[in-house]
Amino acid sequence: MTLLDVDGIDGYYGESHIIQDVSMTVDEGEITALLGRNGAGKTSTLRCISGATPPEVRDGTIRFDGTDITNQPPEDIAVRGISLVPEERRVFTDLTVAENLHLAETVRNKSNTWNRGLEFKDEGMSTDEIYEFFPRLDERREQKAGTLSGGEQQMLAIARALHQSTDLLMLDEPYEGLAPQIIEAVENAIERISENGTTVLLVEQNAVAAMKIADRCYVLDRGEVVFEGAADELRANDEIRDRYLGV
Ligand SMILES: Nc1ncnc2c1ncn2[C@@H]1O[C@H](COP(=O)(O)OP(=O)(O)OP(=O)(O)O)[C@@H](O)[C@H]1O
Protein backbone atom coordinates (compact mmCIF):
# COMPACT_ATOMS: atom_id res chain seq x y z
CA MET A 1 0.00 0.00 0.00
CA THR A 2 1.19 3.52 -0.79
CA LEU A 3 1.80 5.49 2.38
CA LEU A 4 3.31 8.63 0.85
CA ASP A 5 2.37 9.82 -2.61
CA VAL A 6 4.27 12.79 -4.01
CA ASP A 7 2.58 13.73 -7.25
CA GLY A 8 4.24 16.16 -9.63
CA ILE A 9 5.41 18.77 -7.14
CA ASP A 10 7.14 22.01 -8.08
CA GLY A 11 9.12 23.62 -5.25
CA TYR A 12 10.42 27.18 -5.27
CA TYR A 13 12.89 29.20 -3.22
CA GLY A 14 11.58 32.65 -4.09
CA GLU A 15 11.66 32.64 -7.88
CA SER A 16 14.15 29.73 -8.13
CA HIS A 17 12.32 26.70 -9.41
CA ILE A 18 14.35 24.03 -7.60
CA ILE A 19 12.05 20.98 -7.41
CA GLN A 20 10.72 20.21 -10.86
CA ASP A 21 7.69 18.01 -11.28
CA VAL A 22 8.93 15.43 -8.77
CA SER A 23 6.77 12.34 -8.29
CA MET A 24 7.55 9.49 -5.95
CA THR A 25 5.72 6.95 -3.86
CA VAL A 26 6.76 5.34 -0.61
CA ASP A 27 5.12 2.02 0.13
CA GLU A 28 4.17 1.02 3.64
CA GLY A 29 6.75 -1.16 5.38
CA GLU A 30 9.49 -0.49 2.83
CA ILE A 31 12.76 1.42 2.92
CA THR A 32 12.79 3.90 0.04
CA ALA A 33 16.02 5.71 -0.79
CA LEU A 34 16.22 9.14 -2.39
CA LEU A 35 19.68 9.50 -3.90
CA GLY A 36 21.62 12.09 -5.84
CA ARG A 37 24.65 14.31 -5.76
CA ASN A 38 25.23 17.37 -3.66
CA GLY A 39 22.62 19.99 -4.52
CA ALA A 40 20.37 17.58 -6.47
CA GLY A 41 17.35 18.61 -4.39
CA LYS A 42 17.07 15.79 -1.86
CA THR A 43 16.83 17.93 1.26
CA SER A 44 14.46 20.33 -0.50
CA THR A 45 12.16 17.42 -1.37
CA LEU A 46 12.13 16.29 2.28
CA ARG A 47 11.39 19.82 3.37
CA CYS A 48 8.42 19.97 0.97
CA ILE A 49 7.07 16.74 2.46
CA SER A 50 7.59 17.81 6.08
CA GLY A 51 5.95 21.18 5.50
CA ALA A 52 9.12 23.14 6.27
CA THR A 53 9.35 26.39 4.33
CA PRO A 54 11.10 27.38 2.20
CA PRO A 55 10.72 25.86 -0.36
CA GLU A 56 7.13 26.56 -1.24
CA VAL A 57 5.16 23.96 -3.21
CA ARG A 58 3.35 25.82 -6.00
CA ASP A 59 2.05 22.89 -7.98
CA GLY A 60 1.39 19.19 -7.44
CA THR A 61 0.11 17.27 -4.43
CA ILE A 62 1.59 15.41 -1.47
CA ARG A 63 -0.69 12.80 0.07
CA PHE A 64 0.04 10.91 3.26
CA ASP A 65 -2.12 7.91 4.05
CA GLY A 66 -4.65 9.26 1.56
CA THR A 67 -4.82 12.79 3.03
CA ASP A 68 -3.62 15.87 1.16
CA ILE A 69 -0.86 17.43 3.29
CA THR A 70 0.55 19.81 0.68
CA ASN A 71 1.77 23.07 2.25
CA GLN A 72 0.31 22.27 5.66
CA PRO A 73 2.16 23.57 8.73
CA PRO A 74 4.97 21.20 9.86
CA GLU A 75 3.37 20.43 13.23
CA ASP A 76 0.10 19.40 11.53
CA ILE A 77 2.10 17.03 9.34
CA ALA A 78 4.13 15.69 12.27
CA VAL A 79 1.04 14.69 14.25
CA ARG A 80 -0.09 12.58 11.31
CA GLY A 81 2.96 10.39 11.93
CA ILE A 82 5.77 11.82 9.81
CA SER A 83 9.06 12.32 11.62
CA LEU A 84 12.13 13.98 10.11
CA VAL A 85 15.69 13.61 11.36
CA PRO A 86 17.45 16.55 9.74
CA GLU A 87 20.98 16.46 8.41
CA GLU A 88 22.43 18.48 11.26
CA ARG A 89 21.21 15.89 13.82
CA ARG A 90 20.13 18.47 16.36
CA VAL A 91 21.06 16.81 19.62
CA PHE A 92 21.76 19.04 22.60
CA THR A 93 25.48 18.52 23.08
CA ASP A 94 25.63 19.86 26.66
CA LEU A 95 22.82 17.59 27.82
CA THR A 96 23.18 13.90 28.62
CA VAL A 97 21.60 11.16 26.53
CA ALA A 98 18.85 10.76 29.14
CA GLU A 99 18.17 14.51 29.21
CA ASN A 100 18.00 14.66 25.42
CA LEU A 101 15.42 11.87 25.38
CA HIS A 102 13.47 13.39 28.25
CA LEU A 103 13.28 16.70 26.41
CA ALA A 104 12.02 15.00 23.23
CA GLU A 105 9.33 13.27 25.26
CA THR A 106 8.29 16.51 26.96
CA VAL A 107 8.03 18.30 23.63
CA ARG A 108 5.92 15.46 22.25
CA ASN A 109 3.53 15.59 25.20
CA LYS A 110 3.26 19.37 25.05
CA SER A 111 2.67 19.51 21.32
CA ASN A 112 -0.33 17.23 21.79
CA THR A 113 -2.08 20.05 23.59
CA TRP A 114 -0.50 22.93 21.72
CA ASN A 115 -1.51 21.81 18.31
CA ARG A 116 -4.93 23.41 18.18
CA GLY A 117 -6.62 20.20 19.23
CA LEU A 118 -4.62 18.03 16.88
CA GLU A 119 -3.24 14.92 18.50
CA PHE A 120 -0.85 12.17 17.61
CA LYS A 121 -2.97 9.09 16.97
CA ASP A 122 -0.65 6.83 19.00
CA GLU A 123 2.07 7.10 21.57
CA GLY A 124 5.63 7.10 20.26
CA MET A 125 8.24 4.74 21.67
CA SER A 126 8.67 5.00 25.43
CA THR A 127 12.11 5.77 26.84
CA ASP A 128 12.41 2.16 28.04
CA GLU A 129 11.61 0.86 24.55
CA ILE A 130 14.16 3.24 23.09
CA TYR A 131 16.88 1.96 25.43
CA GLU A 132 15.95 -1.60 24.52
CA PHE A 133 16.20 -0.68 20.87
CA PHE A 134 19.49 1.20 21.18
CA PRO A 135 21.58 -0.59 23.83
CA ARG A 136 24.46 1.79 23.09
CA LEU A 137 22.36 4.70 24.27
CA ASP A 138 21.34 2.73 27.35
CA GLU A 139 25.01 2.25 28.25
CA ARG A 140 25.64 5.96 27.79
CA ARG A 141 22.58 7.43 29.52
CA GLU A 142 24.59 9.80 31.71
CA GLN A 143 27.10 10.80 29.04
CA LYS A 144 26.90 14.29 27.47
CA ALA A 145 25.64 14.01 23.90
CA GLY A 146 28.53 16.16 22.66
CA THR A 147 31.02 13.50 23.74
CA LEU A 148 29.27 10.67 21.86
CA SER A 149 30.70 9.37 18.60
CA GLY A 150 29.09 10.57 15.36
CA GLY A 151 27.23 7.28 14.99
CA GLU A 152 25.92 7.41 18.55
CA GLN A 153 24.75 10.99 18.04
CA GLN A 154 22.93 9.87 14.90
CA MET A 155 21.23 7.09 16.87
CA LEU A 156 20.25 9.61 19.55
CA ALA A 157 18.77 11.90 16.89
CA ILE A 158 16.78 8.96 15.48
CA ALA A 159 15.70 7.93 18.98
CA ARG A 160 14.46 11.46 19.67
CA ALA A 161 12.37 11.32 16.50
CA LEU A 162 10.86 7.96 17.49
CA HIS A 163 9.56 9.50 20.72
CA GLN A 164 6.73 10.80 18.58
CA SER A 165 4.35 8.33 16.98
CA THR A 166 5.99 7.62 13.64
CA ASP A 167 4.53 5.84 10.62
CA LEU A 168 7.06 7.39 8.25
CA LEU A 169 10.60 8.13 9.41
CA MET A 170 12.52 10.45 7.07
CA LEU A 171 16.28 10.48 7.54
CA ASP A 172 18.42 13.16 5.87
CA GLU A 173 21.94 11.83 5.21
CA PRO A 174 22.27 9.74 8.38
CA TYR A 175 25.63 8.32 7.25
CA GLU A 176 27.29 11.68 6.63
CA GLY A 177 30.69 11.96 8.24
CA LEU A 178 30.60 8.45 9.72
CA ALA A 179 33.33 5.82 9.43
CA PRO A 180 32.37 2.62 7.54
CA GLN A 181 31.95 0.40 10.59
CA ILE A 182 29.81 3.07 12.28
CA ILE A 183 27.68 3.35 9.14
CA GLU A 184 27.03 -0.35 9.53
CA ALA A 185 25.74 0.15 13.09
CA VAL A 186 23.38 2.92 11.93
CA GLU A 187 22.30 0.74 8.97
CA ASN A 188 21.42 -2.05 11.38
CA ALA A 189 19.40 0.36 13.51
CA ILE A 190 17.46 1.57 10.44
CA GLU A 191 16.77 -2.01 9.37
CA ARG A 192 15.47 -2.91 12.82
CA ILE A 193 13.24 0.18 12.85
CA SER A 194 11.88 -0.95 9.49
CA GLU A 195 11.33 -4.52 10.68
CA ASN A 196 9.49 -3.05 13.65
CA GLY A 197 6.88 -1.70 11.22
CA THR A 198 8.00 1.86 10.55
CA THR A 199 8.24 2.94 6.91
CA VAL A 200 11.52 4.68 6.08
CA LEU A 201 12.46 7.36 3.54
CA LEU A 202 16.24 7.53 3.46
CA VAL A 203 17.99 10.45 1.79
CA GLU A 204 21.65 9.73 1.09
CA GLN A 205 24.64 10.81 -0.95
CA ASN A 206 26.28 7.51 -0.01
CA ALA A 207 24.40 5.53 -2.64
CA VAL A 208 26.31 2.27 -2.11
CA ALA A 209 25.37 2.12 1.56
CA ALA A 210 21.77 3.21 0.93
CA MET A 211 21.19 0.63 -1.84
CA LYS A 212 22.20 -2.12 0.59
CA ILE A 213 19.15 -1.66 2.78
CA ALA A 214 16.69 0.03 0.39
CA ASP A 215 13.82 -1.75 -1.36
CA ARG A 216 13.18 1.02 -3.89
CA CYS A 217 15.34 3.89 -5.06
CA TYR A 218 14.77 7.27 -6.65
CA VAL A 219 17.61 9.28 -8.13
CA LEU A 220 17.36 13.06 -8.34
CA ASP A 221 19.40 15.36 -10.54
CA ARG A 222 18.89 19.12 -10.68
CA GLY A 223 15.54 18.79 -8.98
CA GLU A 224 14.20 16.13 -11.34
CA VAL A 225 13.68 12.39 -10.92
CA VAL A 226 16.02 10.66 -13.38
CA PHE A 227 15.58 7.07 -12.15
CA GLU A 228 13.08 5.07 -10.16
CA GLY A 229 13.13 1.36 -9.56
CA ALA A 230 14.09 -1.48 -7.26
CA ALA A 231 17.47 -1.24 -5.52
CA ASP A 232 18.62 -4.28 -7.53
CA GLU A 233 17.76 -2.52 -10.79
CA LEU A 234 19.80 0.50 -9.78
CA ARG A 235 22.70 -1.69 -8.72
CA ALA A 236 22.63 -3.25 -12.19
CA ASN A 237 22.32 0.08 -14.02
CA ASP A 238 25.91 1.21 -14.57
CA GLU A 239 24.93 4.21 -16.65
CA ILE A 240 22.70 5.83 -14.05
CA ARG A 241 25.09 5.05 -11.21
CA ASP A 242 28.02 6.47 -13.11
CA ARG A 243 26.25 9.52 -14.47
CA TYR A 244 24.26 10.67 -11.45
CA LEU A 245 25.78 9.02 -8.42
CA GLY A 246 29.45 8.69 -9.31
CA VAL A 247 29.65 5.11 -8.01
N1 LIG B 1 17.15 28.26 1.36
C1 LIG B 1 17.50 28.20 0.08
N2 LIG B 1 17.37 29.25 -0.75
C2 LIG B 1 17.70 29.18 -2.05
N3 LIG B 1 18.17 28.08 -2.65
C3 LIG B 1 18.33 26.99 -1.89
C4 LIG B 1 18.00 26.97 -0.50
N4 LIG B 1 18.26 25.75 -0.01
C5 LIG B 1 18.73 25.02 -1.05
N5 LIG B 1 18.76 25.75 -2.18
C6 LIG B 1 19.20 25.30 -3.51
O1 LIG B 1 18.39 24.21 -3.90
C7 LIG B 1 19.17 23.22 -4.60
C8 LIG B 1 18.96 21.87 -3.98
O2 LIG B 1 19.52 21.86 -2.67
P1 LIG B 1 19.25 20.66 -1.65
O3 LIG B 1 19.87 21.06 -0.34
O4 LIG B 1 17.84 20.30 -1.68
O5 LIG B 1 20.11 19.53 -2.32
P2 LIG B 1 20.57 18.16 -1.73
O6 LIG B 1 20.41 17.17 -2.81
O7 LIG B 1 19.90 17.88 -0.45
O8 LIG B 1 22.10 18.40 -1.49
P3 LIG B 1 22.97 18.29 -0.15
O9 LIG B 1 23.47 16.94 -0.15
O10 LIG B 1 24.05 19.32 -0.41
O11 LIG B 1 22.10 18.66 1.00
C9 LIG B 1 20.61 23.73 -4.57
O12 LIG B 1 20.87 24.32 -5.79
C10 LIG B 1 20.61 24.76 -3.46
O13 LIG B 1 21.55 25.74 -3.72
UniProtKB/TrEMBL annotation:
Residues annotated as domain ABC transporter: 4-247
Superkingdom of origin organism: Archaea
InterPro entries: AAA+_ATPase, ABC_transporter-like_ATP-bd, ABC_transporter-like_CS, BCAA_Transport_ATP-bd_LivF, P-loop_NTPase
Pfam families (UniProt xref): ABC_tran (PF00005)
Keyword annotations: Amino-acid transport, ATP-binding, Nucleotide-binding, Transport
Name of the protein described by the UniProt record: ABC transporter ATP-binding protein
Coiled coil: none
Protein species of origin: Haloarcula rubra
Record GO biological process: L-amino acid transport
Family to which the UniProt record says this protein belongs: Belongs to the ABC transporter superfamily.
A GO MF label: ATP hydrolysis activity
Record keyword ATP-binding present: yes
PROSITE patterns: ABC_TRANSPORTER_1, ABC_TRANSPORTER_2
